[in-house]
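Fold it.
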Amino acid sequence: QVRLVESGGGSVQSGGSLRLSCAVSGYMYKSYCMGWFRQAPGKEREGVARINSYGTTFYVDSVKGRFTISRDNANTLFLQMNSLKPEDTAMYYCASGGVASCDFLPGTYNSWGQGTQVTVSS
């Protein structure tokens, strides 16, 4: 059974950094598309960063140059977030998608973690 568990969220001031982790169990996650999403109150869930089975990464324009998605050989997915802004405040989720496709459509991801809260104050 696939299980995703996020950690690393917290409260920081604008300009600060956080590193989110997602512990993955139940399958060979490097064979699949993995993504980080976020959802702020009253807003739709949006894709932030993703990494496909080849290790190619993609970012939403609003986080390019500030966020970095990576993974290790111990089934952990990371999201390094630098130069954080108040508009980055949201619940952050990691998700597992398919093998052939990798995009930012939440409906194409079939397993989700419980989320970790990130709050950035000005």
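The chain has a mean pLDDT of 94.
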